[in-house]
Amino acid sequence: MNMKDIERKLRHVGYKQAKLYFFCNLIALMIITAYILLMKSPTILTILPEGGDSRRQMYMIFALTLFGCVVFTIYAASLFFRKKTRQIGILMALGASKKQLIPGVFREVLTLSSLSSLAGMLAGIPLIYFLWNSFQLLVESSEMTLHLDYTALFLSGLFILLVIVISCFTANYYLSRTNIIDVIQEEHRNEPVKKLGKWCGPLGLLLILIGAILGYSAPEIWLNIFHRYPSAFVNIFYAPVFVGLYLVMLHTVVHGWHFDRKNPYHNIISRSMMKFQGKQTVNNLLVSTVLIAGACFAIFYIPMLATGQLVSVSGWEFDYMYDYRLDQTVPSQTEIEKLAASHNLKLKDWKEIPYITLAQDGETQVEEEDQSFHYEYQQLLEETKYVSETAFNQLTGQTLDILSGTFRLITDKDDNAAMYAKRSDSVLTNMNTRKTLSVTYEGLAYFSMLTGKVPYYILDDKDYAEISQGLSSDWMGSAHFFNADGEDIYAFADEFFHTFVKSFGPECEYPAYYDRVNKIAANEHGEIYWGDTDDMTKISLSMPDTSDFRAYWAFMPKFRSLNMNDFMNTFAVYLMTFLFIFIVCVTTACVICYTRCQTIAINNRYIFDDLKRLGASPAFLNREVRIQCKRVYHTPAVVGMTMMFLLYFMIMYANDGRISIPELAGMAACAFVLVLIMLLIYLVYRKTVTIMRRELNLI
Question: DSSP string covering 88-149, please?
């Protein structure tokens, strides 16, 4: 038998380690490739607005996933070579020189790294198609057709290059070892972490809380102090979160959270095994925690959006509401009732309320060339809608008395009126005559169906009549309300919606946040209104079923049955995108935890064998396996989910200093989702325990 035969036999003995390394690289590349293809897909980029919160959230979670996969890849390479060094040491002890070993080692490393990475990249393509098409079975939306930009695979290529570089660097590091005995015993060398006191756990939890508050508040504080838009540098204030996470994981590994003072030797074997491999364990727990937190951040988007929609729609006072400018010709009441009759539906409780659109004044931000800004008063700041007190009282049955020279903001019972609606004294301007009216803010009035992206206000009848004189029809409008007499019919709502949209002219083809007052003010100053640039979301009356149209059209009606039944279709791309991200993050976290448990089984096999010889019962050994796996899965799941739930709760509260009923309902739905996630992780944990018991011959 020559040296090559020995090397081949040793390589065959270590096939399990090679298989695990291949699997880790394949999973990492498959996840990253699928995420990159999703992130760069024209389907997604068309729907998620550039610079919007949804797209920023997608990029942020990708950064977390990329971080997790990089650390996972480094860990996989290190684990593979810790086992590989025993083979290298044996060959060196038999007289092989490093010069002789280098070609074989690098050939094996390059082959494994390249094939596993390429296989992972190729597997990412069918993965995204499989998941996306599975989602598409749930909804019927033309926007759900997935289009991929395969030039994005260039980024996967860079990740493959990173994997190969890491593997070659790690191989070179282990080949540079000179002490043969140390090389042979490398796989049994422990990596304990520095033992800190039991204070590190509570301190870590405190740092997580402090970091979350500082990181979330830093941009606003920066704006108020420096009057300059914050750069990415302010994210450094989130650093205490990661320090705190590390301390929590360190406490878990070194001390555990259930120390029994009466029996300090309880679970001493499992605790000691975790301590002896502390560096690996802490790093794995940290990465898994970050990924699970990212998964929760993604999946929370769905219950928050769905619950908010459900609570909002259920609180409407009428089944139907639509409004339009008076320069448009929409279906009359008679035509609508005739259309309803064709669906065997009767309508009742008809109400009509006229409104006018005026300019409102206020402070606006003016940017400087150095990216700083200051505030300037602007009389023609934004367009807002106004109704008279008599019309409002007739619509709602209330008896409000609006004094002359005052006005009120219309909101719902949870005060979810436009977030930045002005709630202070104002100067109103008629955009045709440029006549002004100074009014004093007197508080709130309540009617949920007049709460929207453009705020509605109430004026005294005399003030309303005076300021509306000379207004052209395009600055005046009418809102109509009615109920279904009996059970509502979706088919009628859908047909009426499409009929209503077709009645509008191209002059009304703009989103709700296209501000005509702001446009006129910008043009009068010789500037181009930003809404006339490519930055503005474009909508088309010819495509009323797209999510952009349903979400942003300025005259989007409120039909209860339409909103309830078409919710999935309207927000399909949003929902499926974040569901996909959730699956990617949870899968990655579970694979990392599974790999860590496999490492425990492989590295500590001799310990379990020694315990058997010492007379340990199968029940005892199985319990030790379960304890090891439980800590690997349980700790990241509990910390990641709890941290993200509390962070989401803090964000909801910080938005307006309270938790509204829709937000509270959304958080309750998120808590239910966490229970489902915990159940999923528990099932993976149970399967991992079974595999480990089989690996250790305990079954």
Answer: HHHHHHTT--HHHHHHHHHHHHHHHHHHHHHHHHHHHHHHHHHHHHHHHTT---GGG-----
* Phi–psi pair at 503, nearest 5 degrees: -80, -10
- Integer CA distances (angstroms), 229 to 76, 232, 298, 431, 541, in order: 41, 10, 26, 32, 36
- Number of Cβ within 10 Å of residue 194's Cβ equals 8
Rounded distance, CA 255 to CA 112, Å?
A: 38
Helical pair 618-656 and 200-226, crossing angle rounded to 10 deg: 20
Nearest CA-CA partner of 409 in 422, 427, 426: 422
Listed in sequence order, the residues at least 6 apart from 252 whose beta carbon sits closer than 8 Å to its beta carbon are 201, 285, 631, 635
At residue 4, the pLDDT reads: 65
The three-point CA angle 29-122-72 to 5° equals 10
Q: How many CA atoms lie within 13 Å of 265's alpha carbon, on the beta-carbon side?
A: 0
Residues of the chain with pLDDT below 70 are 1-15, 49-53, 86, 88-90, 93-94, 96-98, 138-144, 177-193, 232, 257-279, 369-371, 418-419, 535, 601-603, 656
Look at residue 281 in the predicted model and tell me its pLDDT.
77
How much is the pLDDT for 370? 67
How far is CA 654 from each of CA 33, 53, 256, 664, rounded to the nearest angstrom? Answer: 36, 16, 34, 14
pLDDT digits (tens, 9 = 90+) for 359-393: 999 988 777 766 677 788 899 999 999 999 999 99
The conformational region for residue 339 under phi > 0 = left, psi -120 to 50 = alpha, else beta, is alpha
Which residues have C-beta within 8 Å of that of residue 637, sequence separation ≥ 6?
Answer: 292, 677, 678, 681
* Helical segments of 478-617, H only: 490-502, 516-524, 547-552, 560-565, 567-570, 572-603, 605-613
pLDDT in tens, 514-528: 999 999 999 998 888
User: Which amino acid type is present at position 218?
Assistant: A
For residue 141, what pLDDT is reported?
63
In this structure, which amino acid lies at residue 477? G
The C-alpha atoms of residue 682 and residue 599 are separated, in whole angstroms, by 19
R_g (Cα) of the chain, nearest Å:
32
* Confidence at residue 573, expressed as pLDDT on a 0 to 100 scale: 76
